[in-house]
Each structure stands twice: as structure tokens, then as C-alpha cells.
Specification:
By secondary structure, the protein is mainly α. It contains twelve helices and nine strands. The protein has helices at about 5-15, 20-40, 50-65, 70-85, 100-125, 130-135, 150-180, 180-195, 210-225, 255-260, 280-285, 300-315; strands spanning about 45-50, 230-235, 240, 245, 250-255, 320-325, 330-335, 340, 345-350. It has a three-stranded antiparallel sheet. It has a two-stranded antiparallel sheet with strand order 2-5. Helix 2 packs antiparallel against helix 3 (about 50-65), helix 7 (about 150-180) packs across helix 9 (about 210-225) and helix 8 (about 180-195) packs antiparallel against helix 9. The longest helix is centred in the middle third of the chain and has 32 residues, at about 150-180. It starts with a helix and ends with a strand. About 35% of the residues are buried.
Length: about 350
């Protein structure tokens, strides 16, 4: 995220191999199997959705990203990632024992050692279809492999960024669909028409047909962007809002604010997925909606996010009605990644 120019372009080009159609087809199959198995256990009970989906996305990451079966090794890796994320908001900023920062530094040390060993092993044995194997064997245009430490850093960032943002955005979409059951019904009808029945597999080639689901997801990302502020750096001096910004200044682009500007979003607090029809999108400024960033640093995994959400919604909505108690309105922690403070109480009532 903090690389620029030639180094950034070279790494991005090399890593993009992990998001080509064939690996994505492999991820889709793994996601569909894992999601279907877990969602089937949610039937008929009130539950806290946020911790449940966080656990699921971590397990899915171990499978799709690392090619590991769920088990003790995946659990330890997942714990290290959770500790790294928590360290970002720790009050004590030194890695003292029993602090979030201490656990985060220990988690990073474990992951660096694990990923370094695995890069060498996967290069020696030949990579698989999982994302890590694709990264480990990625080459630059001249055929050279990426340095091991860069593969390790990219993989650490991807795992950390991907599972937390998906957890947040899946929670916001579930919350908004529970509040707007008419949209829940429209997405359910779409999923049933595409898959052919409750809990049926979602085919990779059918993902493009989930048009209403994609629009609803985009509207959830507008209302509650999982990355509320994006760090950037001014490449040259410029003026904005009457202020002079010198070159090199650290700046933040607030998606949470941009997504509520009435000039682009009439009734900005209203949940209306039809804002994202092709006709409506064509009328707006291209940077009025920036949950995945934009330009040269546009999120490399955005299509993976769409895929995971579409599969999750298809598996959930074809089986269940998502219900909340009358008047229920959880408070959201806005930073660093939005999440419902009470875990989001919902009931999955079998249809």
C-alpha cells in the first residue's frame, strides 16, 4: 500500500497472477464449499453474526489463501493475524508482555518465520492453486522471482487486510438487509433463479449474474466503508479547500465522508442499491465511491471480495430469512475498521 512508481507497478503486475481466472475459479470452489458447510449450522437460532463471520473468513483465508486444511496449524496462523490487527489499536505502543502490541509483534515474528519457510518450500516443490503459492512463484517481466521478504510482506498485508474488511462489509450488508427485508427478498429471488434451489453450489461462471447482489453490496460499502480513511502522500504541492498542501504531506482520503456528500448521493443515509445501476454510475464522478481506493493503488483483491460476498449471500438467503428484534439498532465502532459493538444480534429463520 505504501509503495510507489516503478517498484509498485512491478510488484502489482507480478502479484496480479493470483487474481487471474484460473486461480479465481479455484478460490470460488473452496469458498463455496466452506461457506455452505458453515452456514448450514446457523439455522433457527439467534446469534452474534460478527464473531461468527470473522471466524469463517479466517478459516476461508487459511484454505483459499494458504492452501491449508482447517486445523491446529491454521488456527495458530489465524491467531497471529488477529493479534497483528489488534496491535494497531493498542494503547501501549511498546511490545511489552501481556499488551496488544506485545502479542502483535510476537504474531508478526511467527508469521514472518512461517511464510519465509513456506516460500522456499513452495518454490522447490512447485506451487499449488492457493493464493500464497501463486505469490511465492510470481515473477517479474524479466523472469526473476520476487525477493522472499517482499513475498512475505505482501502476503501478511493481504491476509490482514482481506479478512477484516470482508468481516466488516459482510456484517454491514447483513445488518442492512435485515433492516430492509424487501431487498432481502429481491436478492433471494435472484440467487434462487441463478442457483436453482436452496443451498445449491454457486458456479464461478454464474457470478456475473448476481447483479442485484452486487448493487446491494456496493450500497453497503457506501454507507459503512470497511476502510473509512485511506492514507496517501501528496506527490506535488496543491491547493484544496483553501489550504495549501506541500509535496510529501501525509493526507487521508475519507471514504466515510465522501460517500455521504449530498451532491452525489441524494438522501445519503437511505439504503438504496439502485444507486448502482449502470445508468446511475455513469452520471457520477468516478471518485464519489472509493471503498477500494482508486487509481494506481486500486485494491488488487476487489473481485475476490465481490466473489466471496456473492457466494455468502447466495448460501444464506436461499436458506434463511435474516431477522432482527423490533427497534434493534446496534452501535458501530467506526475505527480502524467498522464493526458492531455488540456483535450484531440476528436470527436465521429457515425458509
Amino acid at each position: 500500500m505504501l509503495l510507489d512508481f516503478d517498484h509498485h507497478r512491478a510488484d502489482r503486475r507480478a502479484l496480479s497472477i493470483a487474481f487471474k481466472p484460473e486461480p479465481m475459479r479455484h478460490y470460488a470452489g473452496a469458498l463455496d464449499r466452506g461457506i455452505a458447510e458453515r452456514v448450514a449450522t446457523w439455522s433457527g437460532r439467534q446469534m452474534l453474526f460478527y464473531p461468527a463471520i470473522k471466524e469463517l473468513t479466517l478459516d476461508l483465508a487459511a484454505d483459499s489463501f494458504l492452501g491449508l486444511p482447517w486445523g491446529p496449524e491454521a488456527d495458530r496462523i489465524n491467531k497471529a493475524f488477529v493479534d497483528m490487527v489488534q496491535a494497531a489499536v493498542g494503547v501501549v505502543r511498546k511490545p511489552l508482555p501481556f499488551t496488544k502490541m506485545g502479542r502483535g509483534v510476537a504474531g508478526r515474528k511467527f508469521l514472518v518465520e512461517y511464510f519465509t519457510r513456506e516460500v522456499h518450500r513452495r518454490r522447490a516443490e512447485g506451487g499449488g492453486q492457493d493464493m500464497f503459492s501463486q505469490f511465492a512463484t510470481a515473477t517479474h517481466e524479466d523472469g526473476s522471482l520476487m525477493p522472499v521478504d517482499e513475498v512475505v510482506d505482501h502476503m501478511s498485508f493481504l491476509m490482514m487486510a482481506a479478512h477484516d474488511t470482508i468481516t466488516s462489509s459482510a456484517s454491514s450488508l447483513v445488518w442492512l438487509l435485515a433492516k430492509n427485508p424487501e431487498w432481502q427478498e429481491r436478492l433471494r429471488a435472484e440467487a434462487l433463479a441463478i442457483t436453482g434451489g436452496p443451498g445449491r453450489p454457486v458456479r464461478y461462471d454464474d457470478l456475473g449474474k448476481f447483479e442485484l447482489t452486487e448493487m446491494a453490496f456496493k450500497e453497503a460499502l457506501r454507507l459503512i466503508p470497511p476502510v473509512p480513511s485511506t492514507p496517501r502522500r501528496a506527490l506535488r504541492e496543491f491547493e484544496f479547500g483553501g489550504y495549501r498542501i506541500p509535496a510529501g504531506t501525509q493526507v487521508g482520503i475519507s471514504a466515510a465522508s465522501v460517500h455521504k456528500l449530498e451532491a452525489y448521493w441524494p438522501e445519503p443515509e437511505k439504503f438504496d442499491p439502485l444507486r448502482f445501476t449502470p445508468e446511475q454510475v455513469a452520471k457520477r464522478h468516478k471518485y464519489a465511491w472509493v471503498p477500494f481506493g482508486g487509481g494506481a493503488h486500486m485494491c488488487l483483491g476487489l473481485h475476490f471480495a465481490y466473489m466471496q460476498i456473492k457466494i455468502l449471500m447466495a448460501q444464506m438467503l436461499t436458506r434463511y430469512q435474516i431477522e432482527i428484534e423490533p427497534g434493534y439498532a446496534p452501535k458501530w465502532q467506526p475505527w480502524p475498521i467498522p464493526q458492531p459493538k455488540d456483535g450484531l444480534r440476528v436470527t436465521f429463520r429457515p425458509i
